[in-house]
Amino acid sequence: MSKYIVADDHPLFRNAISGVLHCLDADVEVVEAQDMASLQTKLCDHPDADLVLLDLHMPGAHGFSALAYLKGQAPQIPVLVVSANERTDIMQRAVEFGSKGFLPKSSGIDVIQTAIQAALNGGTWLPAHAGISAPAGDDEQKLMEGIASLTPQQYLVLTMLAEGLLNKQIAYELDVTEATIKAHMTAIFRKLNVRSRTQAVLAISKLNLESPDQST
């Protein structure tokens, strides 16, 4: 049986992709995640998944940091980025950072099936209009590697930090002590090669993407 994880915060889109996947293979299991927290759980529960379809804009994803996390925690599972943001540089970055391709949400069923099949076969799929953009710089690549090295808990702490939460708030949300959060922060700073909370937030913000309705 094939197994897919569909990570997207829009229920209608998850249902649409699920329908396409069942058309590809009647004997299929589709696991849904609506944000990064639930995706982390699904990855732990389903390490044998054949493919993750990942929306870069769902809550907690922080753009390409979500892709970095997946490559670090589940390198055995191929990832296909799915997004309504169709800027050509973002498409190229997705592949450069380890995705098996970029699937625009405006794609028709035939295109979706082609992209998914290419990813499953080990290939890479991009829209014909993707074009070529300048490669990511060394700083971006090192940042992606740093985020990929974070533990699941450290990644959660970093994303909460980026959302403006204080240590005591993060500790409350994760049901741990502030001392534990401080220990995570120390590890995060080391792995991202930064020295402060502000620098850590600035670092992850470099991987953020503008909302699709703001893109041109």
UniProtKB/TrEMBL annotation:
Keywords carried by this UniProt record: DNA-binding, Phosphoprotein
Domain (Response regulatory) ranges: 3-120
All residue ranges annotated as the HTH luxR-type domain in the record: 143-208
Pfam families referenced in this protein's UniProt entry, alphabetically: GerE (PF00196), Response_reg (PF00072)
UniProt keyword annotation of Hydrolase present: no
Alphabetical GO biological process terms: phosphorelay signal transduction system; regulation of DNA-templated transcription
Single GO MF annotation: DNA binding
InterPro entries: CheY-like_superfamily (IPR011006), EvgA-like (IPR051015), NreC/VraR/RcsB-like_REC (IPR058245), Sig_transdc_resp-reg_C-effctor (IPR016032), Sig_transdc_resp-reg_receiver (IPR001789), Tscrpt_reg_LuxR_C (IPR000792)
SUPFAM superfamilies: C-terminal effector domain of the bipartite response regulators, CheY-like
Superkingdom to which the source organism belongs: Bacteria
Modified residues (4-aspartylphosphate): 55
Classification via CDD domains: LuxR_C_like, REC_NarL-like
PROSITE patterns with a match to the protein in the record: HTH_LUXR_1, HTH_LUXR_2, RESPONSE_REGULATORY
Protein name, as recorded: Response regulator transcription factor
Organism this protein belongs to: Porticoccus litoralis
Classification of source organism: Bacteria, Pseudomonadati, Pseudomonadota, Gammaproteobacteria, Cellvibrionales
